[in-house]
């Protein structure tokens, strides 16, 4: 039996829960969970914001631990190996997207916490094709958020061939944004942070920003007209997107990794005349996660975390809900 913490209703406290995962399949591994980050997507699943939660649900998709069992057809992972598991816990490995290395776009990809139980538990099962070995040198305690938020902000740098000479901005310096600043700075880019928190300015510069602009001040935003090759938005609120579009260079891109549920009010004329783009992307493929971990290891990039014990999970979730997390929360065994 796997011992876990599960939500039984939207916005409800998580309670102790046990379930039988069944026999380990030939393509699966069992992970002994040492650490698990808490992400806003966990809250969305707990609260059934996307309408696909099945209760009881065990959230947790930023898993770090060690392999304790392997299926008979698994040959690239070993018992005792330190590994991570992110948003996906399996891919079909048969479609053209999987064959091209874009497993994160696979229509049959299995989300770790939708329709199955995740990492707020002592153990978790996952298909071996979604589990990534953690290289020596990575701090295991803070590695969990890299498997979701970290790869989510790293992925666009690869997807859109961002160059070290590019000027890149990040909207929202929170759980995603504070990692984005570190990655983009290490990439070699000139980095600008858009934040509504004036008291964060020195810290934001320490995280890698060369410039800080107030996201609530239209004049400050307007001062950057035509400056950025890429803007990464990590926020989940509606902003004046046309104002941000005006800060892009010709062929610049406004890219969403934060989920904004309201329709985008976009001036198409601005897109056409500047040949600008608006796009979005999810988490990254296993290969992208490997590349991200190697890059983070080389440049000593780590999420800023606060630690809670697993049995303090409701206290930890409350802190995340109230926006007090600095910047990511990790449950520790």
SSE blueprint and pairings:
Blueprint: E1 2-7, E2 14-19, E3 28-38, H1 40-46, E4 63-70, E5 82-85, E6 88-90, H2 96-99, E7 110-111, E8 123-127, E9 132-133, H3 140-143, H4 149-159, E10 167-171, H5 177-187, E11 190-195, H6 201-207, E12 211-214, H7 218-222, E13 228-233, H8 241-245, E14 248-256, H9 268-274, E15 277-280, H10 286-299, E16 305-309, H11 313-321, E17 328-332
Parallel strand pairs: 10-11, 10-13, 11-12, 13-14, 14-15, 16-17
Antiparallel strand pairs: 1-2, 3-4, 3-8, 3-17, 4-5, 5-9, 6-7
Helix pairs in contact: 4-5
What's the quick description here?
The protein is an alpha/beta fold. The protein has helices at residues 40-46, 96-99, 140-143, 149-159, 177-187, 201-207, 218-222, 241-245, 268-274, 286-299, 313-321; strands at 2-7, 14-19, 28-38, 63-70, 82-85, 88-90, 110-111, 123-127, 132-133, 167-171, 190-195, 211-214, 228-233, 248-256, 277-280, 305-309, 328-332.
User: Which CATH-level-2 architecture of the largest domain?
Assistant: Alpha-Beta Complex
Main beta sheet: 7 strands, mixed
Q: Share of helix among residues?
A: 25-40%
Q: Tell me, what is the CATH class of the largest domain?
A: Alpha Beta
Order of helices and strands: EEEHEEEHEEEHHEHEHEHEHEHEHEHE
Give unreliable regions as ranges.
none
Number of helices: 11
Tell me the structural class: alpha/beta
Distance between the termini: 18 Å
Describe, in plain words, how this protein is organized in 3D.
The protein has helices spanning 40-46, 96-99, 140-143, 149-159, 177-187, 201-207, 218-222, 241-245, 268-274, 286-299, 313-321, and strands spanning 2-7, 14-19, 28-38, 63-70, 82-85, 88-90, 110-111, 123-127, 132-133, 167-171, 190-195, 211-214, 228-233, 248-256, 277-280, 305-309, 328-332. The protein is an alpha/beta fold and 333 residues long. It folds into 2 domains: 2-148 and 283-332, Quinone Oxidoreductase, Chain A, domain 1 (Alpha-Beta Complex); 150-280, Rossmann fold (3-Layer(aba) Sandwich). Strands 3, 4, 5, 8, 9, 16 and 17 form a 7-stranded mixed β-sheet that branches. The longest helix is centred in the C-terminal third of the chain and has 14 residues, at 286-299.
């Amino acid at each position: 039996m796997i011992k876990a913490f599960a939500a039984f209703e939207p916005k409800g406290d998580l309670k102790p829960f046990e379930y039988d995962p069944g026999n380990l399949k030939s393509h699966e591994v069992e992970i002994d969970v040492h650490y698990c980050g808490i992400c806003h997507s966990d809250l969305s699943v707990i609260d059934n914001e996307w309408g696909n939660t099945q209760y009881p649900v065990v959230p947790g998709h930023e898993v770090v631990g060690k392999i304790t069992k392997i299926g008979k057809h698994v040959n690239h992972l070993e018992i005792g190996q330190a590994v991570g598991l992110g948003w996906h816990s399996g891919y079909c490995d048969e479609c053209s997207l999987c064959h091209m290395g874009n497993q994160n776009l696979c229509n049959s990809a299995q989300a770790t916490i939708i329709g199955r139980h995740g990492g707020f538990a002592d153990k978790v099962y996952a298909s071996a094709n979604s589990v990534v070995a953690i290289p020596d040198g990575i701090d295991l305690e803070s590695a969990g958020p890299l498997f979701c938020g970290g790869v989510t902000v790293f992925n666009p740098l690869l997807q859109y061939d961002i160059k070290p000479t590019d000027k890149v901005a990040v909207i929202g310096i929170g759980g995603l944004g504070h990692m984005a600043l570190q990655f983009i700075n290490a990439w070699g880019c000139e980095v600008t942070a858009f934040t509504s928190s004036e008291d964060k300015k020195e810290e934001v510069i320490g995280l890698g920003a060369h410039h800080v602009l107030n996201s609530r001040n239209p004049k400050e935003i307007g001062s950057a007209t035509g400056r950025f090759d890429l803007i990464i938005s990590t926020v989940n609120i509606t902003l004046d997107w046309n104002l941000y579009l005006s800060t892009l260079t010709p062929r610049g891109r406004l890219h969403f990794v934060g989920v904004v549920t309201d329709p985008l009010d976009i001036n198409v004329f601005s897109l056409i005349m500047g040949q600008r783009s608006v796009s979005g992307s999810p988490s990254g493929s296993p290969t992208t996660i490997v590349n991200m971990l190697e890059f983070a290891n080389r440049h000593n990039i780590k999420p800023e975390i606060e630690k809670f014990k697993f049995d303090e999970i409701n206290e930890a979730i409350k802190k995340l809900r109230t926006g007090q997390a600095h910047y990511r929360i990790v449950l520790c065994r």
